[in-house]
């Protein structure tokens, strides 16, 4: 006994010298209470005066043992004095990336305030930026919850949990589904009509979320998907050696952009009709020619080359050198090379200048650096000055989590971008006879080409009768173009009202 006591005393005295850690020193920092900031607001939306409560705050996702594992930050706008919440829809919206917060849909289109950027594809410049009331938002017909996934906005893992637990197609979809379940429980909205949706990768997320919500016996039934700038099947829009589909799905977007910049001769009198013609050529003539490879007859090769030049505004000589193929990045540089300009990826209406005109691909995307400053300034100002948020850490516009994203899903078991989540939507539509899909696409969007989305919905078991397609003469973020914003909000409002 004396020996044991002596040994324990030696260890205790030696601890400061040998760095021995004890339980009280190694205990993790306590997780603070979730923060929430609410305020009463009002506005005139869709011609109706709406009084609502704005709540910006954290929702903690819980482990099986009930301890917090992640904080999801959201901004919710809920109409006051609703007699029966079961009749009032609620829409959950997010952006993409993966790794983006919800600022773009929030401050660009669907929120009660929006930042104003030039509608004619000019750069947004420097502060001060204009933020204004947004009478076009759909708060007259639905409550809206903007969601920031883990690693974006103020959302983060908690305790000993790491971001990688939430960074993946399935992992991310599961966490957002958990958030929706937690939110509708806390707010007593299980009986309300529900819409979920997003932009860009946010549409991929929407498919993963619907799979989580409606894939078990404890379903959260969803009334509609609101998909903006859709990407479902990453393989059909990938430029990989041996994969010809990317050249096919991008061609109509190239045709639209060439027409916008006056490179189609003669100029099309009707853009929609011209793009229908481009689609038909792409799938009926161009795709078979590419599949024939080096067995394609010389006369047919010359005919295809001539039509490619017509639809894209790129010379026949270029297509001769490139074996009938042009990638998106080459197109950005080649279309206006004679003017010393490059066109945008997110929005082909935008143009910019590189350091020189000899490159094969552009330095950067003029349609992104043309808007990012205004949106970043607007959301940071709005959260603090109008919603009263007091959180002492940066609001992350892009969390950089895409570099660590897990692209594996049970449906395909292949890594990288060979991911296809469209079957999730097909399954949900077959198992939920009321589920409808709204698909919004910008003609000048190279990030998520409109024909690629159409091809995803042509296949994969999706029910065509319950899909609404809408097209806009703008790009990836069609709402930065004022006429397209007006049309988009009218279209989404009509989509929700049709579900009543």
Plain-language structure description:
The protein is of the alpha/beta class and 500 residues long. It has 2 domains: 36-235 and 372-497, Alpha/Beta hydrolase fold, catalytic domain (Rossmann fold), CATH 3.40.50.1820; 245-364, no CATH class. Helices cover 36% and strands 18% of the residues. Helix 6 (245-260) runs antiparallel to helix 7. The protein is globular, with a radius of gyration of 26 Å. It starts with a helix and ends with a helix. Mean pLDDT is 91; it is low at 1-24.
Fold blueprint:
Elements lengths: L1 H17 L4 H4 L9 E10 L2 E15 L5 E12 L10 E5 L8 H8 L2 E4 L13 E4 L9 E6 L7 E2 L11 H18 L7 E7 H14 L9 E7 L14 H16 L10 H22 L5 H15 L3 H6 L6 H7 L7 E2 L7 E2 L13 H4 L2 H14 L36 H10 L4 E7 L7 H9 L8 E6 L9 H16 L3
Parallel strand pairs: 4-7, 4-9, 9-10, 10-13, 13-14
Antiparallel strand pairs: 1-2, 2-3, 3-7, 3-8, 5-6, 11-12
Helix pairs in contact: 3-12, 4-5, 5-13, 6-7, 6-14, 7-8
> What would you call the shape?
globular
Measured by DSSP, the beta-strand proportion falls in: 15-25%
CATH topology grouping of the largest domain: Rossmann fold
Helix content: 25-40%
The SSE string, one letter per element, is HHEEEEHEEEEHEHEHHHHHEEHHHEHEH
How many helical elements? Answer: 15
CATH architecture of the largest domain: 3-Layer(aba) Sandwich
CA distance, first residue to last residue: 79 Å
**Over all CA atoms, what is the radius of gyration?**
26 Å
**Mean pLDDT across all residues, rounded?**
91
What's this model, at a glance?
This protein has 500 residues and is of the alpha/beta class.
């Amino acid at each position: 006994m004396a020996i044991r006591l002596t040994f324990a005393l030696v260890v205790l005295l030696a601890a400061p010298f040998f760095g021995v850690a004890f339980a009280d020193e190694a205990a993790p920092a306590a997780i603070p209470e979730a923060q929430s900031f609410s305020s009463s607001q009002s506005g005139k939306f869709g011609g109706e005066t709406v009084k609502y409560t704005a709540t910006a705050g954290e929702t903690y996702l819980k482990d099986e043992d009930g301890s917090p594992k992640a904080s999801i930050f959201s901004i919710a706008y809920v109409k006051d004095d609703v007699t029966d919440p079961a009749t009032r829809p609620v829409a959950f919206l997010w952006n993409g990336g993966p790794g983006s917060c919800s600022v773009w849909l929030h401050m660009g289109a669907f929120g009660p305030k929006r930042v104003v950027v030039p509608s004619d594809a000019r750069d947004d410049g420097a502060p001060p930026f204009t933020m204004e009331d947004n009478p076009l938002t759909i708060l007259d017909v639905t409550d809206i919850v903007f969601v920031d996934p883990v690693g974006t906005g103020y959302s983060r893992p908690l305790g000993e949990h790491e971001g990688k637990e939430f960074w993946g197609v399935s992992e991310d979809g599961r966490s957002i589904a958990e958030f929706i379940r937690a939110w509708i429980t806390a707010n007593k909205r299980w009986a309300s009509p529900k819409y979920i949706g997003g932009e860009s990768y946010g549409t991929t997320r929407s498919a993963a979320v619907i799979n989580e919500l409606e894939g078990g016996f404890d379903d959260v039934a969803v009334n509609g998907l609101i998909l903006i700038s859709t990407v479902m099947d990453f393989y059909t829009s990938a430029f990989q050696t041996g994969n010809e589909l990317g050249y096919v799905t991008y061609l109509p977007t190239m045709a639209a952009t060439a027409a916008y910049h006056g490179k189609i001769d003669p100029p099309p009198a009707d853009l929609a009709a011209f793009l229908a013609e481009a689609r038909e050529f792409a799938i009926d003539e161009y795709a078979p020619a590419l599949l024939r490879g080096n067995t394609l007859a010389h006369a047919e090769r010359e005919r295809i080359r001539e039509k490619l030049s017509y639809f894209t505004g790129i010379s026949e000589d270029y297509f001769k050198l490139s074996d009938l193929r042009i990638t998106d990045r080459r197109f950005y540089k080649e279309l206006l090379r004679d003017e010393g300009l490059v066109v945008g990826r997110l929005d082909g209406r935008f143009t910019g200048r590189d350091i020189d005109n000899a490159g094969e691909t552009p330095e950067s995307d003029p349609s992104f650096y043309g808007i990012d400053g205004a949106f970043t300034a607007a959301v940071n100002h709005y959260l603090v000055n109008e919603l009263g948020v007091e959180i002492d850490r940066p609001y992350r516009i892009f969390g950089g989590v895409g570099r660590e994203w897990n692209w594996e899903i049970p449906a395909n078991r292949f890594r990288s971008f060979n991911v296809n989540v469209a079957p999730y939507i097909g399954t949900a539509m077959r198992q939920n006879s009321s589920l409808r899909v709204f698909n919004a696409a910008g003609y000048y969007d190279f990030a998520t080409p409109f024909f690629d989305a159409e091809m995803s919905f042509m296949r994969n078991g999706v029910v065509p009768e319950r899909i609404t397609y809408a097209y806009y003469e703008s790009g990836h973020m069609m709402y930065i173009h004022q006429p397209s914003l007006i049309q988009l909000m009218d279209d989404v409002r009509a989509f929700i009202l049709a579900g009543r």
